[in-house]
Amino acid sequence: MVQKRWEERFDQLMRENLIDIDAQFYKDDLPFQDPSKLGEIFADLEEESLKMIHEMQEKEQQLEKMRSDEIRMHENLDAKHTTHL
Questions:
Q1: Main-chain phi, psi angles of 19, to 5 degrees
Q2: pLDDT in tens, 46-63
Q3: How big is the chain by its Cα radius of gyration, in Å?
Q4: pTM over 0.85
């Protein structure tokens, strides 16, 4: 059966009370009970994001330095090569 047909069949069986669903199925538990906890969650996520951004910036700087070092190394090798010819 295609997805649409499955959904129609499911809805039909639900209307006829032929499907037994646990009461917990429709209960959505919040990951927090205190609304102020949400602010703490966002603050923690923001702090983690800033830390990750800082780490990525450091890695980008390291990569740029490595690229620069590689370019200088190739220039030195090219210079040595041309002087030996």
A1: -115, 125
A2: 999 999 999 999 999 999
A3: 31
A4: no
What gap in Å lies between CA 3 and CA 1, rounded to an integer? 7
Closest CA to 68 of 76, 83, 52: 76
Run of H or E residues at 78: helix 35-83
Residue 10 token pair: 């499911």
**Tokens, residue 25:** 């199925």
DSSP 39-77: HHHHHHHHHHHHHHHHHHHHHHHHHHHHHHHHHHHHHHH
CA 44 from chain centre, in angstroms, equals 16
CB atoms within 10 A of CB 3: 7
**What is the C-alpha to C-alpha distance for residues 18 and 36, in angstroms, rounded to an integer?**
42
* The two structure tokens encoding residue 40: 């703490």
Q: Which amino acid is at 73?
A: M
